[in-house]
Amino acid sequence: MNITKENILAKVNSYDILNHYLLPYHKENKLLAAKNISNPFLAEKQDTPSFNIFPSMGTGEWRYNDFATGDSGSCFDLVMKLKNISFVEALKTINSDMNLCLEDNSNNNQIVNVIPTVKQETDEFDKMKPAKRFTITKRAFTPNDYDFWNKFKINIQTLERFNVVPLASYSAFKADGNPYEIKSFGSKLIYAYDNGDWAKIYKPLDDKKFKFQFLGIKEMGFIFGWKQLPETGDLVFITGGEKDVICLSSQGFNAITLNSETSNLQDETAEELKKRFKNVIVLYDNDATGIKQSKHLAATYQIKRLELPKIANNGKDISDFFAQGGTIEVFNQLVEDTLIKPISEIEEVEKVIYNAVELMEMGDDETRYLIDPIFPQKGSAVIAGKPDTGKSQFARQLCIQVALGIKDFIGFQLNITHNKALYVATEDNKENTKSLLKKQLKGLDKDPKDNLRFIFADTMEQEEILTQIENALTEEPADLVVVDSFGDIFKGGDTNNNMAMRNTVKSFDKIAKHHNCLVLFVHHINKGAYRVAPGQEHIQGGAGLVQKVRLAIQLSEGEGNTRYFTVVKGNYCPKEYKQNSIELNFSEDTFLFSNTGRMIPTAELGTQPGAKGKDEKFNELEEIAKTIFGDRLVSTGNFVKRFCEITGKSIPTGKRAHANLIKFDIIEKCNGVYRLKNNTLLDDNEEAIEDDNGIDF
User: Fold this and answer.
1) pLDDT at 669
2) For residue 91, what is the DSSP state?
């Protein structure tokens, strides 16, 4: 039988081909349908895996898909893309790798079944073109190269030993077959870990997502540094990256690295290392992922682990250690201390499998609360509401009272262990936070304490925020972490994507579980829920968010300074707090909440007394807006001035009215000023009414 698509599929199905070539990229024996794994075509592991396989409806053919990039294809497409080869070469590769024993008649210039017999196979005919290639253009080392590597205590001789070469340029082909070239110029440094048939590109000064790139067909099971190891030795390190290996080698140590810190160490590899070397030490980054994975490897294979001390400027690996002034003497002492420590003292990975007897013998099974009996002591929770209900003030007040050791919060008992809280602000800056904190502390008649810490994260990505929280809690444990707001730390393009929502919560849940604290998210509700009774379905983010957190609270607005505290989801919350809402008073002078002692059936909140009055006020505000704006562009200051003239109310009330018009989508911004929403009568070039009222904004 000749090597054709049909003959291959007669011997092995499309699932087996996909599963075979995707084995290095997941931890399962068999990849399940719709089970997301990291995209194998990307140089770095995805934080939120988006790649999966699935059987096609009707045909039953197994295909791959990546919902993040939109890329999809057959098992043959996968092999072509992974190996960077043509369709015919992919057929030969599958035949060889899977031992199908089909005959290769290509040497006789006979191509079987090239002409498609059905329409959809024309794509395969188009793919029968020469294999894509890559080229790297090497250059000599320059003073810039010496300066870069020298700060990590890495010498040129070691770089040459590990085939690290500086590049003038490299070229390859895009997914669509078009060629491209990347050149080194000025301070743009490009290096290649040159492995002959393939290379890993390293651009140290580029953004994280562009730093690494694979060219050519990566060798299956390749371990960087393995070829440079001696036959036997006293010590070998398992590190988190190529630069770490080279750095250690420059200092006279043996080292290897897996594909990443989250890659699995094969049993046979671990056993061979232990036979050839007297000691094996895991030396990963000192961040949360590195620490967790090094503990896992050390416990699994009964080897030792070295955890680096805190490094300046957010350094985390051994190359950063030396770059930030760490000396070989200090490192040698760390190694010596690690070798002295018995393997029996290695911290075990967290146990996750228990039998029924073990569970029953665990002792205290009472539910523990931070705020008894509503807020859990550990896990994640969310408080949501529309703008201006005071949800951020509520969360900040809770943090303040935890830090001050006040045992009562809105009439409920606070069970505090550390008297410490951490507030992550993604919206308010230091100046705004100081002003709000000052007002709330004055209302409580208390002085500030350093037990309350703030992380200002308006420019941080989710990974940076997680790292900062992990570091802060490692340094000083806390009872409560507030993240204000959830929308800024959500990593995903679609807030209705349940999996992305759950993955975001899961990342913070891990921290809460590890540090035995509560993480409280501040979030929003949907605009359509502003005037209806509270419910978990109104919280932005679909079911994924509410399903994953242990507690969900909705803060609603009543008449005047009245607010309603409603438990819309509570795993261990008494039924009375789920069926009834707690009435609170919110002081605009102190930004503090207090319990009025009243509870109202939650179902009545959508049609509670005063709702008609609120609608009338809304309609009145809308009419005032029409009077002031009409067909004109109006500045904020001029609106406030006219509003005060019409209503006789104060400037602050006018400012709030203007803010409400924006939030209720009654007005919109246009060229730095405002107009009525959906007003098409105005020309964008029309001049605005001058802001000459002297009101400072």
Assistant:
1) 84
2) H
